[in-house]
Amino acid sequence: RKPIIAHIGRFDPWKGIHRTIATFRRVRKEAECQLIVAGGLAVDDPEGHRMLESVRRETADDADIHVLNLSLADRLENWREVNALQRAAAVVMQPSTREGFGLVITEALWKARPVIGANVGAIPLQLKDGDNGYFYETPQKTADRVLRWLKRPQEAEAMGMRGRQFVRDHFLMPDRITDYL
Known about the structure:
6-stranded parallel β-sheet; 8 helices
């Protein structure tokens, strides 16, 4: 099967979806892979609908890019779909231009997946550049990082395990309760 690069998050202009697509297209020139862009729409967010249509137009002629509009009607079903996508991914990307605490990033780290995020908002609290993931720079520089992981899966696995340990050390509830007490 072709390795999966996954971008998971709301269809929002700030989520960096176009950055992910540009990076993927550079990666695919050198490695066989596929991109899954999966997200949901808030019922009260017309910008999300415009973003989804923009992504669909940009990727319509590309059989290796799969755009999934995940339903939010059943939260448990949505959680299962996101969980499956993260676990199947070789790399998870979230190169947002604005972001609070990126839950998708921490979820992917917990699943021991190498992550590309952006050096914005609270993401630097989650990603330690070069240790448990990398910050997005440019499509080409980021593609070079992704290609390295695809060509050297043992390095990707080691980085993913460091990410999992980082989440264990900093974000699990028992530790937060201990900090509070």
